[in-house]
Amino acid sequence: MKPSVGIVGLGLIGGSLAKAMKHFHLTSRLVAYDGSRESLLQARAEGVVDDFPQDPSQLADLFRGLDYIFLCCPVQVNLEYFRLLQGCTDRNTLITDVGSTKEDIMAAVRSMRAQSAFIGGHPMTGSEKTGYKASNPHLFENAFYLLTPAGLSDDQQLQGLLELLSSMGAIPMVVDPQTHDFFTAAISHVPHILASGLVNTVRCLDDSSGHMHTLAAGGFKDITRIASASPVMWQQISLTNRSSILQVLDRLLQELQGIRRSLADLDAVGIYDFFNQAKRYRDSFQDKGGRPLVQTYSVTVDVVDEPGIIAKIASTLSTHGINIKNIGINNNREDDPGVLEIVFYDKKSQQDSASLLSGLEYPVYVL
Ligand SMILES: NC(=O)C1=CN([C@@H]2O[C@H](COP(=O)(O)OP(=O)(O)OC[C@H]3O[C@@H](n4cnc5c(N)ncnc54)[C@H](O)[C@@H]3O)[C@@H](O)[C@H]2O)C=CC1
Ligand SMILES: O=C(O)C(=O)Cc1ccc(O)cc1
């Protein structure tokens, strides 16, 4: 029997979960609630959600007895909905959230001695875009999805959630909340603060004609893309992961002080080392290889970015019986040798496509 699912917060992440669950036919019934009625109406019109409460007072009734409830609002709002919904659910309902910080919500849920089971969750995928309109059913494919059960659910419930997430293409991984928050402070939260800090720096230094704004090129835009994300979401992430963020921020400031000192002292070796150490570590990520637990088979094709090019390559491969798992334009030529990345299901398809495409006019890189 497929599970019944409720989603509170039908934005980028909640909307993507709903679309993925519908796309992969994973639910018997999917209901949702969001502060935006427009999103709910659109989702129902698209067949993504089956029902939604007409007003917030009906939320508890509509969500009673569901197998899973996903809380997908900003982190502090998720806790408010947990408080509300745990009162109308029992141990048979597993409540989970998608918030970017975990210690805070896990501690609050534990201290509440709630009736319902809870597993913290955090998909390590997303974007700077917000709202249902930006959601996409394939968002979780090949993405790590961190889970913090911390003893607030039983084994069967954890197993069920692992299976549900895997069916959407995600790669679930169990971690403890403290480790989660420290890791994400370093790889996500402090980088976000830095990106916003850079944008604010240019905003303050720009002249009255906005020349810096006009001239800002690829590098600046790449490193600051995430500064366009929701300020409410990042305010709540920052407030709920203060100690880890402060710890990592202090380490970053030390790094910046170091390069500042090297510059002030005209220490050419120190300056070189700063860039060289970063380059060597950054090169070891190789984006696709940054997921060491998952074997991916991809090629990068150096093509001219022109209309119809993806269709041409896709049809060449399909004519030769090669199935494509994923295909996408890589807009950042600084990071990769080509612009078109094609992911396959197996090594044979990867090798066959590499020889096929290099036999045409395309330079192909097997990564
Ligand atoms: N944006 C991202 O890339 C990622 C976000 N997350 C986490 O996912 C959660 C949701 O983020 P997004 O989907 O990106 O944000 P979003 O802004 O796209 O969606 C949030 C949704 O919650 C609704 N909402 C906000 N307050 C509400 C309230 N009081 N009552 C009812 N609905 C309310 C909004 O109308 C919106 O539809 C956050 O906790 C965030 O930390 C996790 C991984 C990635
Ligand atoms: O846009 C990006 O690259 C992101 O990194 C999005 C993101 C934001 C918050 C998270 O907790 C996880 C992922």
UniProtKB/TrEMBL annotation:
Its pathway is: Amino-acid biosynthesis; L-tyrosine biosynthesis; (4-hydroxyphenyl)pyruvate from prephenate (NAD(+) route): step 1/1
What is a GO molecular function of this protein?
NAD+ binding
Going by the UniProt record, its keywords in alphabetical order are: Amino-acid biosynthesis, Aromatic amino acid biosynthesis, NAD, Oxidoreductase, Tyrosine biosynthesis
Q: Which residues are in the ACT domain? A: 298-367
Which positions make up the signal peptide? none
- Name this polypeptide is given: Prephenate dehydrogenase
User: Does the keyword field hold rRNA-binding?
Assistant: no
Reactions catalysed: prephenate + NAD(+) = 3-(4-hydroxyphenyl)pyruvate + CO2 + NADH
Q: Name one Pfam family in it.
A: PDH_N
Does the entry feature the keyword NAD, yes or no? yes
At the top of the EC hierarchy, this enzyme's class is oxidoreductase
Which organism is this entry from?
Anaerotalea alkaliphila
Family affiliation: Belongs to the prephenate/arogenate dehydrogenase family.
- Where in this chain does the record put each Prephenate/arogenate dehydrogenase domain? 3-293
Q: Which GO terms describe its biological process?
A: tyrosine biosynthetic process
